[in-house]
Amino acid sequence: MSACKPLRVSIVLPTYNERGNIEALLRQLLTLQGRFDLELLVVDDDSTDGTGELVRQLAREHPQLRLIRRIGRSGLASAIKEGLLDATGDVAVVMDSDGQHEPVSVLQAISTLQGEALDLVIGSRFHPEAQIHGLSERRETGSNWANASARFSLPGRYRDLSDYMSGFFALKLDPLLPLIRAVDVNGFKFLYELLAISRGRLRVTEVPLQFQARSYGSSKLDLAIFWDFLISILHSLSLRLLPRRAISFALVGASGVAVQLLTTQLLMALAGLTFGQALPVAVMAAASSNYLINNALTFRFQRLTGLALVKGLLKFLLVASLPVLANVGLASAYYSFVARDTLWAQLAGILVVFVWNYAASSRFVWNTP
Ligand code: GDD
Ligand code: MN
């Protein structure tokens, strides 16, 4: 590589319904072409507002611009991963496409990355010199909480960072590609996952962001994303041994226990049923609520709707009824043959039921391996 050859920079821009924002941003970014050998990669998840068509038109005029259009796959983290794996730059920058991140931060992040022999530079909203416009108080509290749990669950070397959830970061592609390839994309937060699997080996620093209010449209962050984040933290804390979906399934299962206990109480107290009458209803209520929550959270990328939702419920009840019998069998076998201890006998039964339910319903209800 000759000394005067400009640095090749790939900017990865995930989009979902950003028609009102993307063009102005792309035009601003294209002006960086003078300084770098530029590549702009828009990763669009089949937006319904015509973002893909607009970018396609622009790409005809600008050879630096490429559109990656994904059908039937979705999720911010997976879009970022795909963009990074397709990028051909020496350096890649990931940023939001809604105008909340500013092109000037790109320059600052790249010069920091190159100047200080680093692997990764994060644009931080919580750096002492950062400015935040357009982050509601609720979101800011949420981010603070999320950052605190992230700090606690990540390698100690990253303790001094302030924005583990940022959607803006710059990195060196060649050394990081193997790691990027290994990032688990079942989450919203690509950056957190990258840090979590790096085992503290990355040289990282932060630059302040001037975080702007969104120009058009609205945020795609929803409850499911917070759920994913909670799962990510527990996954890290389990030393990444427990599968993420199994953790989610277990938490939902725990909520089912609460539903069952509560329903039994209510039916007995208010409807005057006996325990024997209330129990089957409560078990059905708990199983159905587990099913619906798992469908909305644990398996939301395979989410069932309409008639399939009803069919799925029947399958789920079928799948779950077998181990209920097994549970009783196991618990009594443990009690008679292993130890006369009711607590451990029941826990042994519950563990087996959990593994069965998780494996069987992943396979037969939501058709995932
Ligand atoms: N391809 C693709 N697929 N892009 C997506 C998806 C998706 O499923 N979901 C969101 N995006 C794009 C949006 O179009 C936008 O360009 C960017 O990802 C960020 O999404 P927003 O919906 O604007 O997120 P936010 O502003 O609420 O969240 C901000 O804070 C988070 C941390 O709290 C962003 O900066 C996030 O990047 C950041 O993680
Ligand atoms: Mn945004």
Description:
The chain is an alpha/beta fold and 369 residues long. The protein has 2 domains: 8-237, Alpha-Beta Complex (Spore Coat Polysaccharide Biosynthesis Protein SpsA, Chain A), CATH 3.90.550.10; 244-364, no CATH class. The protein has 12 helices and 9 strands. The strands form 2 sheets. A 7-stranded mixed beta sheet has the order 3-2-1-4-7-5-8, with helices on both faces. A two-stranded parallel ribbon has the order 6-9. The longest helix is centred in the C-terminal third of the chain and has 33 residues, at 306-338. The protein is elongated, with a radius of gyration of 25 Å. It binds guanosine-5'-diphosphate-alpha-D-mannose and manganese (II) ion. The site of manganese (II) ion has 5 residues, from loops. Guanosine-5'-diphosphate-alpha-D-mannose is lined by residues 14-16, 18, 43-45, 74-76, 79, 96-98, 100, 143, 165, 167, 189, 219-221.
Q: Which features characterize this protein?
A:
369 residues, binds manganese (II) ion, 9 strands, alpha/beta, 12 helices, two-stranded parallel ribbon
